[in-house]
């Protein structure tokens, strides 16, 4: 990392026009004393130009109000922004929310769960995003090879897997708001401050389990499981429907599931709920699309100079703050424990050593160092392995543009699992997303 | 093994009244020259007494016709039969076919696949059978500790898992007719004799894959995959509906699935087919029940002194012959390669070393020695891991009589995967099988 | 851990009459504000009674001088001391220094390296100590089952291995001053404060490597290797002869060895050096024996009320301070990183998951959580594995009192490796230590 | 493999002028009925031209006497011989016996064991041979890519490791006469035919253990261990001094060591024995050099038309026969069990999956399929790991021509283990072998 004399850190945010960016800006502002960001470059594509400028204007008002010397830049050319960057965050959406609406509605039309990061929808988001992310990573390797790339684009786990397997730099970390949401949910459940709670996280992105929960360092896992069994929620992240767990099941499971596990342990109920939303034209992407529009209206307000409270309902709360926290810990070698997506390296002994996992790690200037979690409990190992197989085949399909591998990935996904219907679904989705899948249509 | 002077081998068959037994008898007759069986003890329970005598009478006519000095004994007390046994085969059905009918119909009633060895049905067959099998194994450990126990009771993989984890002797091998059926199917496809074909099998029982196919030692896997893709069948075992594989899928899969994989890769189609059978009162168990009755009518015929050809339609063809082949190879230290269920011991590197797997093994007098298969291909590893998790939790549930673990097993099974419906299903099935689940109702 | 209202922590130190104890007392005094020890029980055996009282008196003067309310107790009956303990430290020497003199001199007499923790000497120290340590652990499991047992009795790695394999409680941690000595040595080399340096430690006790060295979080391993190659020392612990490393070797090794690696990478030179000391009657144990006597003379001085500076020359410097630091981090859930001996649990992927390793770990109230270190570099993996084999066979020999396993352990040790001479050596050492090896002479 | 219509197999033997070749020719003659070799190409280098012609003439007399239509060809240009080859055997000696004399004498001069395949001598043989073997393998990949390469050049394990890591074709198998010698030794001990005995071999080349011994399929390991303990020999291979094992040691070891283990378990005695031979100018290479000269005199005899009995004393007995046996089993898809050097692939779970091991394997037309051996016993795992580390570092040193890695390999070898002396030794040996180490002197 370059010597900092009269200058601070340079951050580049690819997808800077995202509605999440104000949280990121707020995160940098409140940490300014220990994390002296001097330049924040917001990068976006032509289609996002208008949003980018709205965000940049708001950001400038925010730093002005906070009276910190962070300069905000915008560009549509990431290669202009990257040189000299210390950290690059990526929060892109290839195909914008329209593509997400398709990811959710088309599977539902065929009777399958339609979701942004799981099943057919998650696979297509990966197929569209991975080639773009790899291109960004290539530019980083050329223009700012020492920078850390912090990705919070979904599906974060598959993107980390792709970066580890096909990427150009090693300094790539994936982030998600789900684990931090669980820790905050547990803290809320206990009525204590977040920093008194720690959870041992192990698994994959959106497939992560809390193996142990600690309050002031004491293991209180059983108590939290009992709370879950009695219908309490242990997650502050409300991205998906929050149906109660079956008490006997959660007790036998013995670990804390994440909200997304509902797709795998409550498959029918989740599907029914989604099908109702589908009929009403209210699948999550459609709801988010409306929320986004409202948010940008709010952001345009020249009098707004803080992150507006409405953003927290957006679903991705804590994402950007988690990113700032991570950047801060790397920059200051804090050695605190955070759950991130990184190379397994034996931390979860039952998963391949070279694959991407989501795991509690000590965050150092040299990057995340996963804590040894041992074997996954037998009851959850199988599902995690199955999703890892799906992820690995999907990543290969995305990289190679392979129709056969995409079909294979879809069929081995436990939310699809039906070969002939999978093929029909695949063909329709490929056609729908054709514009963003050049590798499949060359 | 005892010295054979004027005496031959003693075989004890628990569940001797099974309709399969004539195949077993035929197997011993045709191998008599190298496998000198002198005593075959057929053991059954009180409810099976009539069938037992029908089978024993047929067996006596068969050995008489073949002019081999195999003596047939019957008993309802296995402890009378076991002393001095060299091999004990187990082919029991706790709850008889009535229980199987429930295993198939009750899940279907709730919209889940109902099947003898998979999903809820497979789990309940395991819950009923494991305690009984462990008791048999305990008797063996006392009365004939050097005997090999050859199990072909379903679900064969979970039973092997239970025997390895909770059993009293190490000499336990599980058998299935699925892999041998695939080898024979490939041979038929190629129009060659079975012994020119060899398949590298790796996976779990009813979850086994053919990783490589050889003709006269040459790897012809790709050619067989292409045959499968063009709609040909590579299995001689017709226990389940033989729907064609999706060509692009099977090519991307790259290995030979077993017929039961249809439940996981064609979930919807298989369910629809079963639901139609359900409505007609023709689920597999009901069909088998009728076939059984017809078979026993045939067996009663005093003029019948060979295995009747109708047995081959029964579904379990080659099971008993596979058992004779295995016994022969152990007894004569043949060192030929056969797929069996045994302790993994590193043969499939991605599965725990101590778990039961179905794997091509060299058969020696000292038992099966698995061939190293390396890692499972990434596309299939996940599903195999998931079923292994299900198996391990089920085995614990059976051993402990744990309601919570049974519920957990059901929910992590990819054919169920819905917690609230799983609980309803579990409760109904527990009640239906109450008589055979003493550990759950103590 | 019990609620602390008006009371502080209770520490029990088995082997309290050790010359190291003043460092321990000093450690508690200087941490009193955050680690409120109210009772320190010093336990020793009859033969150590006089030393125990000298130490206890000094300790009382020290706490008085420091004006902290730590009460010092002594007893010859550990079962009197243990009830209610929060932490039990063990620093015993079965057979006292006389036994160590034999451990060093007898092997040298036969031309083998004679050393407290390596080779034949290390093995005999383990054989004498393990049964006693297991008895202590058994008492802890009965009298204060929630207490953490912190062992710094040598050979610390084999003792941890024995506790993990045969012990009665899980809360057992082994400590050594070698890794902390390396960190301090590196800091000294760099001229910076210790807390700016961090080393990734992985291996076994006295067989640990520094895989990476960080200054303020930046990886400076190569720079430190170059320093070692140019003859600088990276260890503040001077227990053994500090011969320079061969520059080309250390560069190819690529990681930081610990001082004890000289026995394995400079076998001949170390042996020659020791043989000279042997002839002069100045083997390390003899030197230490004299130092001890001098120390106790100093300790007797009624005017002494601090840890005397002479103690730092004793060889075990930082041992006790490391123990206090560890206790403090557990008590206060500090989540700092310390190297300890604990269960591997996958942290070093190339070693068995259940064995004892020495590894950088995050220290929490719930105990140490090892950081994932991945595979050991190929160049050092072999030696570490070999010593782990030696350790495991030795631990079994100690537990079973097995002559054959003791012989086996000696022969597979790379410092012995000669079967007939090993047997002669073994017989002589067994006879010499007969009194302390009841399991071998029953 | 090509279709055989009017033609038989083509074998190419690189190093055809070796004194072992008559055994190879005999092996092909006696198997002619099932292994129809039509062409045997003997290839050698200019310096070996005279020997090559002597051998070729003898071979021609042998096939004529046996009346089999095997044609013998000679060439000094392997690229002339390779096209169309079905099997290529390699039995080369880079630097001839003069180099081996240096490999043995120079280490002994410095007080280290001097041996062809172990310690410094083994390392230098690897450094000289690996680049040449890789070149041969490259030619094979171009000129006869479907051919199997069967290497019995020493050090066979490191060469297999190099071929697996840096080679151009996958069809590479390493052979050694040590395991077959043990099986034959056990058979002799028992007074039974070789084919009634089977040993489970696992380990590395010249570092292989017999984990279990079977007579007619029954496990008689304990009985053989007792025989070894009572001073009997279980090896027919007499390459090295056959000192008796210490009875208590061998019983505790519990597995059958190979003769070369004496270097690691009887280090001092072996060194003393060698030092005496050194003084007398009778190190093994010198003895062999004389034997070779005598053999070639015998081979020249125009009346000799069989393999002369004197060859069996040469030390490498059974090597060539083992090669013929292996070729025969591959060609005829025999599926018999033979110990070979091949990729581990999980067969020995405690070793890396991708490294070369020596392990009992089923030999098929598709190559060797290792039997799962599970974990190595703890007592031997360490030494095997250490030698594997040495092998891997040596292979890298050979490939890269790295002085530092060569020094590292030497120091981590347990027969050297002394850094400063290792450097002196390394420098002297590099100079002595300069001509054959172009990568180190570029």
From TrEMBL, chains A, B, C, D:
Cofactor(s) listed in the protein's UniProt record: NAD(+)
Cofactor note: Binds 1 NAD(+) per subunit.
Residue ranges constituting the Glycosyl hydrolase family 4 C-terminal domain according to the UniProt record: 201-416
Record-annotated site: Increases basicity of active site Tyr: 116
Top EC category: hydrolase
Protein family (similarity comment): Belongs to the glycosyl hydrolase 4 family.
Keyword Manganese in annotation: yes
GO molecular function: 6-phospho-beta-glucosidase activity; metal ion binding; oxidoreductase activity, acting on the CH-OH group of donors, NAD or NADP as acceptor
Superkingdom per UniProt: Bacteria
UniProt: substrate binding residues: 100, 154
EC number: 3.2.1.86
Entry's Gene Ontology BP terms: carbohydrate metabolic process
Residues where Mn(2+) binds: 176, 206
Protein name (record): 6-phospho-beta-glucosidase
Keywords, ordered alphabetically: Carbohydrate metabolism, Cobalt, Glycosidase, Hydrolase, Iron, Manganese, Metal-binding, NAD, Nickel
SUPFAM superfamilies found in the cross-reference section: LDH C-terminal domain-like, NAD(P)-binding Rossmann-fold domains
């Amino acid at each position: 990392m370059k010597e900092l004399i009269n200058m601070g850190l340079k951050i580049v945010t690819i997808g800077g026009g995202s509605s999440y960016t104000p949280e990121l800006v707020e995160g940098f502002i409140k940490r300014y004393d220990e994390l002296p960001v001097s330049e924040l470059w917001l990068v976006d594509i032509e289609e996002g130009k208008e949003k980018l400028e709205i965000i940049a204007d708001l950001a400038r008002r925010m730093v002005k109000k906070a009276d910190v010397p962070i300069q905000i830049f915008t560009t549509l050319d990431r290669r202009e922004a990257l040189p000299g960057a210390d950290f690059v965050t990526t929060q892109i959406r290839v195909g914008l929310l329209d593509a997400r609406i398709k990811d959710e509605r088309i599977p539902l039309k065929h009777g399958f769960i339609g979701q942004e990061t799981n099943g057919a929808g998650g696979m297509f988001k990966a197929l569209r995003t991975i080639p773009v992310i790899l291109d960004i990573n290539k530019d980083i390797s050329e223009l700012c090879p020492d920078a850390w790339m912090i990705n919070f684009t979904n599906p974060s786990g598959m993107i980390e897997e792709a970066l580890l397997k096909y990427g150009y730099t090693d300094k790539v970390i994936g982030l998600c708001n789900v684990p931090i949401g669980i820790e905050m949910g547990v803290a809320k459940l206990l009525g204590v401050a977040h920093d008194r709670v720690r959870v041992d996280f192990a698994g994959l992105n959106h497939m992560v389990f809390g193996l142990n929960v600690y309050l002031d360092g004491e293991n209180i896992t059983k108590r939290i499981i009992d709370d879950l069994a009695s219908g309490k929620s242990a997650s502050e992240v409300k991205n998906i429907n929050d149906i109660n767990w079956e008490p006997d099941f959660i007790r036998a499971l013995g670990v804390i599931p994440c909200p997304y596990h509902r797709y795998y342990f409550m498959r029918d109920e989740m599907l029914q709920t989604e099908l109702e939303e589908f009929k009403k034209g209210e699948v999550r992407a459609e709801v988010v699309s409306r929320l986004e529009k409202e948010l940008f209206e709010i952001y345009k307000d020249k009098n707004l100079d803080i992150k507006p409270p409405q953003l927290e309902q957006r679903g991705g709360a804590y994402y950007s703050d988690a990113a700032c926290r991570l950047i801060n810990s790397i920059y200051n070698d804090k050695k605190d424990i955070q759950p991130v997506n990184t190379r397994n390296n034996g931390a979860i002994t039952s998963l391949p050593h070279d694959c991407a996992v989501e795991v509690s790690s000590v965050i150092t200037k040299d990057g995340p160092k996963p804590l040894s979690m041992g074997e996954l409990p037998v009851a959850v190992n199988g599902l995690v392995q199955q999703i890892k197989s799906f992820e690995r085949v999907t990543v290969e399909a995305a990289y190679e543009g392979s129709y056969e591998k995409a079909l294979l990935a879809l069929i081995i996904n436990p939310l699809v699992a039906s070969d002939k219907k999978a093929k029909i679904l695949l063909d329709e989705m490929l056609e729908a997303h054709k514009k963003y899948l050049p590798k499949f249509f060359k």
